[in-house]
Amino acid sequence: MPPLVQMQGIVKRFPGVQALSGVDFSLEAGEIHALLGENGAGKSTLMKVLGGLYPPDAGTILLDGEPVTIPTPARASELGIAFIHQELNLARHLTAAENVCLGRPPRRFPGLVDWRAMRETAQKALERVGAHVDPDALVGSLGVGNQQLVEIARALTMKARVLIMDEPTAALTEAEAAKLAEVARSLAAEGVGVVYITHRLEEIFRLCSRVTVLRDGSLVGTYSVAEVTPDFLITRMVGRELTERFPKEQVPIGEPILQVEGLTVPGKCQDVSFTLRRGEILGVAGLMGAGRSEVMRAVAGIDRPSAGRVLLGDKPIPTGSARAAIANGIVMVPEDRRGQGLLTGRPVRENLSVAVLRSLTNFGLIRGSAERNLVDQLIDELEVKTPHREQSINYLSGGNQQKVVLGRWLATEPQVLILDEPTRGIDVGAKAEIYRLMGRLVAQGKGIILVSSDLPEVLGLADRVLVMHQGRVAAELSREEATQEQVMRAATGR
Amino acid sequence: MRVELSWGERIRRLGPGLAVLVLGAALSFLSDNFFTVSNILNVLRQISVNAIIACGMTMVILTAGIDLSVGSALALGSAVTAGLAVGGTHPLLAILAGLGVGAAIGLVNGLLVTKGNVPAFVATLGTMAIARGLTLVYTGGRPISKLPTLIQKVGTGYLWRIPVPVILMFVIILLVYVFLRHTPYGRYLYAVGSNPEAARFAGIPVHRVLITAYLLTGILSALAGVILIGRLNSAQPTAGQAFEMDAIAAVVLGGTSLAGGQGGVGGTFIGALIIGILENGLNLLKVPSFWQQVAKGVVILGAVLLDRRRK
Description:
The structure holds two protein chains of two kinds. Chain A is of the alpha/beta class. Helices cover 33% and strands 26% of the residues of chain A. Chain A folds into two domains: 5-238, Rossmann fold; 256-491, Rossmann fold (3-Layer(aba) Sandwich), CATH 3.40.50. In chain A, strand 11 and strand 12 (218-224) form a beta hairpin. In chain B, helix 1 runs parallel beside helix 12, helix 2 (37-62) packs parallel to helix 7 (164-182) and helix 2 (37-62) packs across helix 12. The longest helix of chain B has 27 residues, at 206-232. In chain B, strand 2 (158-159) and strand 3 form a beta hairpin. Helices cover 76% and strands 3% of the residues of chain B. Chain B has a single domain, classed as ABC transporter involved in vitamin B12 uptake, BtuC, CATH 1.10.3470. Chain B has helices at 7-30, 37-62, 70-86, 91-114, 120-139, 149-156, 164-182, 184-194, 196-201, 206-232, 243-253, 265-284, 289-310, and strands at residues 144-145, 158-159, 162-163, 234-235. Chain B is an all-alpha fold. In chain B, the strands form two sheets. Chain B has a two-stranded antiparallel ribbon with strand order 1-4. The chains are: A alpha/beta, B mainly alpha. Chains A and B meet through helix 10, helix 11, strand 20 and helix 13 of A and helix 8 and helix 9 of B.
């Protein structure tokens, strides 16, 4: 019997980038097949070809052994290919039932929507994916996990035979992720072929039967998960040995550089005090909504605190002014890259130079050569993969976009860097580069505050860990004291 | 590092310029009077008012805003200039006062959009009506005529055989171009239009940048008003009605995105030129004026549709 899906020699080019160069991929009915690779390796692109979003420049797609062309997403769903995107495609102001039946609501004479049938269909589909969701609930009011289940329910009502999930667990809690895994398993048991794009190696070993690794738009290989190890996959993925997951550099810790005293933002955080020293990485852990980002926004002058002081050395910094903070060497790399970091549609050059334009001027005019030199130097230093500095930031991969955002702040020559979830959604290779960069920065005597939900990352890198719970500092642990259990206990308020 | 643009991108950037050439070539064939020095200067003079307003509009649209009050700012600013000048104030002071009125309207727009958090469309719709009403109040609904020579010269004079409005237009375009491309503040306009939240994180004074865009637009509208009253030797209380539409059309034809963050003032000049050449050509070809409006609309839509397809 031919495989459910067979993609052969798929080629896809974008302006200035060869995204896929002749990739083969096959999917069997009833398997969960992981697609692994660094950002920009071409995973999403390959699946977007299958989902009818990008027409391939060359190559063939066979479904049940029959050649098909998939020029549009509509054609893909006709063929039974459903795509759950990383950014969910739901109408937030409509109900769960309306979303499940979006685009093809059940009809009754004379062409009106049959609301009762819609609710029943939705109810059934939602039950099948194990979502305890009221079909009449507005999707915008649901948690991310449930929203994801609504999307999967929608795919089911379209009688999907191929289900593509692009990093479905990136925004989910452990419990939600576990539930999603269960749903994927039961769908596979019913004969659906599931493609699972992920960065989380442990998920692959828990869930998938085969794994296909891509690197730089080419196929590295397809392996049976039972026969490989995580280290093997990492080497395949990055094309080199990664000696250590968290390359922690030992640097001497100097005098205090940043002192935060009694910082309060009404409704967000209460009376937060801490100190950061030169050469130190201070980890900030806590659950979602514990007020980690909010404290840091106030420190970086984005939001105005109602009380408290921020001192650089022993000099108080005016609060509530990002400009004053930057001028004094305190910068924050925000957590939401797309929403808060990127100047979308603008070239890499402008994205890198925007925070330091004033210092590049002569009589009020920007010196073009100075700007270009600065930008080229940053691109080299951070190894940003871009065909040229005028490339629109939109065309870079997530990891490279993140490097550009980091570069923007490095250009300001900061003393204190606040990194809010700097490695979320980026691949192992780019992560390691960012860790090494952090090592270099503290070696220069800067201080780093690392806010992260990735606990192993915090424990691996931080010299000290601040744990937050309900807007307050719940614990301050030294590197030796900080264990997963200790941090979780403080984070949950026990 | 070498900077390469794809052919598609190059053609896209040239698109509006090509349109001007094609339109110009076609009209040269169809009419003997089109490709003459006097007619070309004539076209440039005719577009100067719109082009100057559109320079301001470009800045506002780059921030993802819109300014519907430009026509009213033109009317109120120029009425004040005319009123003071006729009343005996020195013409230069009268012009400055008119520009000040334009600046004030722009400032109010900027404050409404930033501190008041009112969508630009609504804020400027309101100030459009207010400024128009104030113009009628100030003039009593009657034109103010018999302006001093200096003001007339701004509309009808020549310098080195080039019409003064044309010189003013090019000076403004150059200044706005340099401002947008080569000063931090100009670049902040793009940043704010592209992603206001990211701009805030980058330490850009977002509110001040927005206010600046509206303020400059108000001043430029009033300046365009001085040219207009100079040419007509009279300030009409109904002057400038629907000018915002021509200005927006020029900006959009020039490839600036209404979503903000993309475009520039060079394109806007080309856009204003396309509209001007079209009107001039249709006149030369003696197309009835009612049909001219239809043709203008068709060209605007056609150009934008072509641009969409290329993207």
